[in-house]
Design goal:
The chain is mainly α. Helix 3 packs across helix 5. It is built from six helices and no strands. The chain has one domain (8-114). 11% of the residues are buried. This is Helicase C-terminal domain-containing protein.
């Protein structure tokens, strides 16, 4: 019934988190920090803990060198938080648009992105 359907949706949400980044789970980053020691910088910690972030890091570094612009989409706001942190820590210029971005600011950001 409805209860089992809700349970399945919760499981799917948790699996989506697993597939995107382990730091979407509250305790994961703290636990990683304890196990990894203090050697890793924060950007490296964000990258090495997720296969998707390893690939994104490789792509963005290569595309930045050649002057490309990149759009990254995610349905999960918390994934956008992680990507924004990563971009800031790596020194990549970026703009973030999500559901809370006002229409006028969104329009200005798109104009800026598309400008020469």
């Amino acid at each position: 019934g409805a209860r089992s359907q809700l349970s399945l949706l919760n499981i799917i949400t948790e699996l989506k988190k697993c597939c995107n980044h382990p730091f979407l789970f509250q305790s994961a980053e703290e636990e990683y920090r304890l196990r990894a020691g203090g050697d890793d910088d924060v950007a490296t910690r964000l990258v090495v803990t997720s296969g998707k972030m390893v690939l994104l890091d490789k792509l963005l570094r290569r595309l930045a060198v050649t002057g490309h612009r990149v759009l990254v989409f995610s349905q999960m706001v918390r994934v956008l938080d992680i990507i924004s942190d990563y971009m800031r820590l790596r020194g990549f210029q970026h703009q973030r648009l999500d559901g809370s971005t006002p229409a006028q600011q969104r329009h200005q950001a798109m104009e800026h992105f598309n400008a020469p």
